[in-house]
Design goal:
224 residues; alpha/beta; elongated; transcription cis-regulatory region binding; CheY-like_superfamily; phosphoprotein; transcription; OmpR/PhoB-type_DNA-bd
């Protein structure tokens, strides 16, 4: 099930129709109040969330979702007419998995939905990635630093995992955008820098393993 939170009836019905015609189950909701009521009945695979909503806006709703133990891991795609980089970064930093700007083509829309769901599919690997005091348990989706559990968002976890899987290799910002977010953000690489900065802070001393390669990108360096 996919919830489409959109106050404009025509757009809401179009999103639901497009999803159902391509094999998904979808339900249209007008506002945050309806969304949270539905969440008590059924947890969806994905939430499409407009920003400009009556009552609570999309940013406020997103913040509440990420504070709910039952809903915080549900992927969210922000769907909005706001196209400024600030608005995109705000949504992504708030925990959104993707951001699509109106107007958009239906083929692109379905492709983005599938990309997010694919990235959130259960992992089949049963292995740990280890570097010094840093350990990433892939199957349990857990990170520890010197025995301390580190709480990461999905994007932070995927970013760290990808860096560790490619230890010693310089990864450009565009490569990271494509791999972690699923498509090119038209050069808006600031979101990578923001996530790297937050990731380093959360990792504590192990954050120094993530090296900046000036003018190129980042790599997981050797243990000190």
């Amino acid at each position: 099930m996919i919830y489409c939170v959109e106050d404009e009836r025509n757009i809401r019905e179009l999103l639901v129709y497009t999803l159902t015609s391509t094999g998904f189950s979808a339900k249209g909701l007008e506002n945050g109040e309806q969304l949270f009521r539905e969440l008590t009945r059924e947890l969806p695979e994905l939430i499409l969330l407009d920003i400009m909503l009556p009552g609570e806006d999309g940013y406020t709703i997103l913040e509440k979702l990420k504070q709910m133990p039952s809903a915080r891991d549900i992927p969210v795609i922000m769907v909005t007419a706001k196209s400024a980089e600030f608005d995109k970064v705000k949504g992504l930093d708030g925990g959104a998995d993707d951001y699509i700007t109106k107007p958009f083509g239906m083929m692109e829309f379905i492709s983005r939905v599938k990309a997010v769901l694919r990235r959130r599919a259960p992992q089949t690997e049963d292995r740990d990635l280890v570097q010094g005091s840093l350990r990433v348990c892939v199957d349990r989706h857990e990170v520890t630093e010197n025995g301390r559990k580190v709480e990461l968002t999905l994007k932070e976890f995927e970013l760290l995992r990808y860096l560790m899987e490619n230890k010693g290799i310089v990864l450009t910002r565009d490569q990271l955008l494509t791999r972690i977010w699923g498509y090119d953000f038209d050069g808006e690489t600031r979101t990578v820098d923001v996530h790297i900065r937050t990731l380093r802070q959360k990792l504590g001393d192990a954050g120094s393993f993530i090296e900046t390669v000036r003018g190129v990108g980042y790599r997981m360096g050797d243990e000190e």
